[in-house]
Design brief:
2 strands, two-stranded antiparallel ribbon
Length: 252
Amino acid sequence: MNKGYYRNIAGLFVLVVCFTGIPPAFADTNLLKAVVGGDIAKVKQLVKSGSDINFVDRDGNNLLFNAIINGKITMAKWLLNHGVDPNVENKYGAPVLITAAGSGYDDLVELLLKKGADINARFARYDNVSALMLAAQDGYLKTVQVLIKAGANVNAETTNGDTALIAATAKGHLDVVRELIKRGADVNMRSETGYSALFVAISEGNEDMVAFLLNKGADTNVADDNGDTALKLAKRMKNPDIINLIKNNGGR
């Protein structure tokens, strides 16, 4: 597993997709300014007067993206309820559902899905991550629950074979890990390097996470691409408590 990936993706995602604050002057139309300012009355007036509700700024963000990335969630809901495409992507290919889920806006995620957003849409620019993966890696339990209830694939993989479970494990979100497994996540799925969630928990030194994964059937005797088993990895990390946990669960 690319361990740095889930530590850094949130920051990369914001840098690439989310341009906060008032947009540049070249896109500074009255309608866009009203959206960014959260002025629904002004937006209603301008749209009624013929302004384009599907306006896209020079950065490739439509009004819905601009509302979300500026935290104007009431505005975003208004736009969705007045015909803005719930499956819109910006020029980087980031689906709006992923933007909302990656920010933990669970009620907006619910509305996007109600309006027809593709629950398993991917952000190809960043290893084909899904909305569920981003919500899981940032610990947004309610958003994770909303997505799973609506049918998100709990075992979907990135280009590198990482899953929502691996992402949540890497960031130490035990409540999310618990929910994912409860809803069918495969505890023994492995990334392209052979890392399972158990390997990630061991490498992070997270004893509670290791104990939970073992209790849920994590296999201690598979090997990663370097030939290391869970016990070998634990010994290399020099954590006696985790070493004992692995041994007590059949690790060799």
